[in-house]
Amino acid sequence: MARFLITLGLVLVVLGLLWPWLGKLGLGRLPGDIVIERENFRFYFPLTTSLLISVVLSLLFWLFQR
Known about the structure:
alpha+beta; two-stranded antiparallel ribbon; 2 helices
């Protein structure tokens, strides 16, 4: 379990460092991501992006377990 948490932490750090370049690819602005903008308020919920990342990570974990 500790090894998994360390690996997950490292993956999150790498994704955080790569986020500016991932934003240029359109990740985070996919159709289905919810954005509500008002005068002094902005709500952003990356629904489609979260689902896509979840599917990719699930497939990767499934492949690594085999």
